Amino acid sequence: MAVSIRLAGSSARLQQRRVKQRDQVLRQLLAASRERETLLKTILDTIDVGIVAVDSNGETLLINNQQRAFLRMGLPAEGSPRPAEQDRPVFGQDRRTPLPLEKSPIRRAVQGETFSDYLLWFGAGTEQRAISTAARGMKNDSDDGFGGAVIVFRDVTDVVDALAAKDELVANVSHEFGSPLTSILGNIDLVLRGAQELEPVTRLGLEVAERNAERLRALVEDLLLSAAAVESVHLRRTDLAGLVENSLVSARAQADAAHVGLVADVPAPLWANADPLRLGQALDNLVSNAIKYSPGGGLVTIRAERNDGWVQLEVKDTGMGMTTDESARIFTRFFRTNAARQAAIPGVGLGLSITKTIVERHGGSITCSSKPGSGSTFTVALPDGTPSEPSRTDAPALY
């Protein structure tokens, strides 16, 4: 019995020492965890980017000081009761239309969407700020399902104002070019028509001047069109099926001349919030480009579908295609691919930039996927203009 008691005591003391050691390790881990938490909080509160993390139900897990400041900008005016959605000073890209709750970044992220460069306007009057948002989902460790999302908010007002000033300058300069060019072209045309006995060298020089003046006028018109696309987008409920049909009818002669087939797979009606004039211009650009960059003939296909509150339009060709680097730069003003320049395909590299501007002013996005020799696919996503189902969370969605 004495031996048993002694062994039991020794075992108890050994277990006690192990418990103390484990307790010490846990305390050290807890202290290290608190240090990392403090460091993370300090970093998040130091940066000038708003960050919020939510779980799968939209409940806030983490929020930094900059995001709290954005939240205060997005609260209803003082003295306004909470309920009225129009009292919330959060607007779409036109800076005037109140943002529907179901289109807020948080609601979109909780529904599983991943997005970037989603532009909103917070506040009103001279205090209004442009906020660019992005979201990425998180996965559960257990079942690899949706576990929440992290949403980032960045103040890009200075960038937006700078771009607006640049567009205004381009528009003013382009407008000033218009009248002299018209006069130059008119007088060259009069000389070529009226003087039948011009020396061949003189006539050749005048014809070269006329061609280059025409190219310059086309460039000026594209610049003016680019500025107009930014300034005048008037959204209303529009049937995109009709716009697609009109675009194909307009492009038929160009397609026939290039031996390119046109195919449409678009359900009718297909409603979206859109400016029919500007969106029709964007579609014309995409279809015309698809035909133009299929010099050996081929097929251009337009498809459309509705998906989770959005309408997706796809313009696909079987033309020359482009590299991954070129696809990333294709929406940059004046950018043209090496293949297009080598093939002497006419253009100044403004059409897709204008198209991107129009789509973004609609609150949508445009992407391009392409491979050399395998054609290109341009995908446009637009709000569908129909009421959405209530989202899965009642958490505030101002941010």
TrEMBL record:
Residues 84-97 have a biased composition (Basic and acidic residues). It catalyses: ATP + protein L-histidine = ADP + protein N-phospho-L-histidine. The keyword Zinc does not apply. Gene3D superfamilies: 1.10.287.130, Histidine kinase-like ATPase, C-terminal domain, PAS domain. It is an enzyme of class 2 (transferase). It is found in: Cell membrane. Keywords: Kinase, Phosphoprotein, Transferase, Two-component regulatory system. PROSITE patterns: HIS_KIN (PS50109). GO terms for molecular function: kinase activity. Residues 78-98, 369-399 are annotated as: Disordered. Its EC number is 2.7.13.3. Residues 172-386 form the Histidine kinase domain. Residues 369-379 have a biased composition (Polar residues). Its main location: membrane. This is histidine kinase. It comes from Arthrobacter ramosus.
